[in-house]
Amino acid sequence: MLSFLLQEDQIVKKSSLTKIMAVFLVVMIVLSGCGNSSEDEAQKTEWRGHTRETSAEEEYTEETEYDENAESAEDEISPEQMELIKYNYYVELNNEIIEILDSIAYYYEVVDYTEEFSMLPDTGLTYGYRVSGNNTDTLDDCVMLADMEPDFGEMDSMVKEMEEPLRALMGTFLEISGSNDYADNQYQKAKEYHAVIYSNADAFAAIAYDFVDAIGEMGDVRMAEEENRLKEEGMLINYNASRAISIGREVLDEAYAQGVDDWNLNELDLTEIQKLHDELVAVVADFDAATADNDQLVKESLSNSRPFDGLLDGLIDALEWMMKQAESGELPDMSGSGAPLGSLEHFSYVLGQCIDRYNTVFVD
What we know:
It is a single chain. The chain is globular, with a radius of gyration of 22 Å. It has 12 helices and no strands. Helix 1 runs antiparallel to helix 8 (236-257) and helix 4 (79-107) runs antiparallel to helix 7. The protein has helices at residues 8-22, 37-51, 62-76, 79-107, 137-145, 154-177, 184-232, 236-257, 271-291, 294-299, 311-328, 344-362. By secondary structure, the chain is an all-alpha fold. It has 2 domains: 1-211, no CATH class; 233-364. It starts with 7 loop residues before the first helix and ends with a helix.
């Protein structure tokens, strides 16, 4: 979506918006549409075994091994399975991208956005505040997958384009998160870290947001297909749980489309969100009716008549609090460490809990 380099305030605002959007993608990793989760994981592990770097004792070059193993993996795994594997890895990469975007935003809450390293005055925050890095395992896998079938078009190109800056940022933020001597020798280490972050953050972010948008669009299509399948097969508990989560995502989509986050929540137009609220209430009522039916529980191999323990009701509550907050004209107090009631961040947090429970109930 963004074709320009992001300045500091743009990184902060867009990152926050993207964070609440991306939480829904976690659930997409476990949707197969063609098999159970253990089979999908076995296929994924098989692919990793063919593409991971092998030991130095073997006589083949890394390039030769990759070509032969990639070809072997594609021969043994069906095109449909390979598409799912590739998609799932891209979702994992998406979630790590979100963490790095957040780390960039948090970093610039403490450090000035200038080429020369300088701490911002009077922030009350310590260097490395809420910064976290990642190892590059998922990135390594995705770079290999980007050259493999099926072709994901621009998404493959974006993976390869952002590899270098993303790799640099992952490693640097990982070092910062574990650093206790950054202030030694007149902040020498901090200056070295800053040089990497300053020179890579904008280039990475410009591609990263496009990638997040693309994987989100693909996720919407896949989720709609999965929900149609569940409904057609009469899996009403699973369907309504999934649909409730989808509606939660649509709420965040609407806020995102309006350019609204907690920092300007009072500007949120609730027209479409009210419609989503009403649909969510109806879907949760259908979910409750399905879980009250013993035959339906047996059909879906569930023994607990309250598989979500009221979490979907909590999602309704979180949405209603957020709507009341927006209508009040006052902004939520985001100065604390948690997500306050009435904030989009709190709604996103509750949605994340629903996603975790969905995975536990229907996948694990």
